[in-house]
């Protein structure tokens, strides 16, 4: 189920279960502790949050605003997306208007700028000047996937927090709690499958749970894999070991199942190969050879090469080495 469909049904769980306070954010104990102490000391610097999607960057920024402003948080928190197609000028104008005054007599307002790494370095320089211009009455929280895409003068003005992918236990615990609150039966292998498919992304895990729960039946491994772009790691492993045994035709048929029946994209297959290679029952040398091929294939696909053809070439290379 897409987010739009979920909204159509009334509620979308990633919003319903978005933590409202910093203490409720799963994982990231060190980060949460430091952010809490900024709030407690009423001494918030500009912040730069980096890390992959769905791990709590926006959530933490909103939670800070809730803790600083209480009920007035919406009026004092501006959320902008830097990749907004209307460009940096619009972003700057909105920042200027917003920074002029606070609602409720607070010393500063918070501006949250998502996808800050989408700004060109010229736009980032302009942003830096804006940050300086309004330094007295605003705090910026910038969010991005990669901090190396952010110019040094901005990085040096911010306290930088690296949000890593969430650990499996944090995801499992959170998902289990939601299932309980929603009165959903979920099996342990269902939770494991959600954790695996989410790969550290809590948004993916929660969306997966909501989608799998729509059938009204117990959420188990099968239900999860049916709705996420992932298959059991064993299915990928069998394809690889079949190729390594020299049986290219059978390996190709298994690839076909993944792409056609399971509906995986070429990128999903590569992603799972990469994540699971070390858990396959292969000797180290075979794993290393596999990873080398996976790297090559990933690069070619990223350059626009035909996905199926490249994956078949990967299996062919493994099969040829079997001799
Ligand atoms: N650490 C977390 N603890 C609890 N829930 C989380 C956590 N991280 C993400 N979520 C859930 O996933 C949803 C999306 O998270 P969030 O908006 O914070 O992602 P993000 O890290 O800002 O990623 P993006 O850059 O893609 O927006 C939240 O609404 C919440 O339901």
From TrEMBL:
Keyword line: ATP-binding, DNA replication, Nucleotide-binding
| Binding residues for ATP | 51-58
Pfam families xref list = AAA, Rep_fac_C
**GO BP annotations listed:** DNA repair; DNA-templated DNA replication
Q: Which GO terms describe its cellular component?
A: DNA replication factor C complex
Q: Which family does it belong to?
A: Belongs to the activator 1 small subunits family. RfcS subfamily.
Give the protein's recorded name. Answer: Replication factor C small subunit
Q: Name the source organism.
A: Halococcus hamelinensis 100A6
Which gene does this sequence derive from?
rfc
């Amino acid at each position: 189920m897409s987010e739009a469909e979920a909204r159509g049904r009334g509620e979308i769980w990633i919003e319903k279960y978005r933590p409202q306070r910093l203490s409720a954010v799963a994982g990231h104990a060190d980060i949460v502790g430091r952010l809490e102490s900024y709030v407690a000391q009423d001494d918030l610097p500009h912040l730069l949050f980096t890390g992959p999607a769905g791990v709590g960057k926006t959530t933490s920024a909103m939670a800070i605003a809730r803790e600083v402003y209480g009920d007035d948080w919406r009026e004092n928190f501006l959320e902008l997306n830097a990749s907004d197609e209307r460009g940096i000028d619009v972003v700057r104008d909105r920042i200027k208007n917003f920074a002029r005054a606070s609602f409720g007599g607070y010393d500063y307002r918070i501006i949250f700028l998502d996808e800050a790494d989408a700004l060109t370095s010229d736009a980032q320089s302009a942003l830096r000047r804006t940050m300086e211009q309004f330094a007295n009455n605003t705090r910026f929280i910038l969010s991005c996937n990669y901090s190396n895409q952010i110019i040094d003068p901005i990085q040096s003005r911010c306290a930088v927090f690296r949000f890593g992918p969430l650990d499996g236990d944090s995801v499992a615990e959170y998902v289990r709690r939601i299932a309980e609150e929603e009165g959903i039966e979920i099996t342990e292998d269902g939770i494991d499958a959600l954790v695996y498919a989410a790969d550290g992304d809590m948004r993916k895990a929660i969306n997966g749970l909501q989608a799998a729960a729509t059938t009204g039946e117990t959420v188990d491994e099968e239900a999860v894999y049916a709705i996420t772009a992932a298959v059991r790691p064993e299915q990928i492993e069998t394809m690889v070991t079949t190729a390594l045994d020299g049986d290219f035709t059978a390996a190709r048929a298994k690839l076909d199942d993944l792409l056609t029946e399971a509906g995986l994209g070429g990128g999903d297959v590569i992603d799972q190969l990469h994540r699971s290679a070390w858990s396959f029952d292969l000797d180290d040398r075979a794993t290393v050879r596999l990873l080398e091929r996976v790297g090559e294939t990933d690069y070619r696909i990223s350059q626009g090469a035909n996905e199926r053809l490249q994956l078949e070439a990967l299996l062919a290379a493994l099969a040829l080495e079997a001799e």
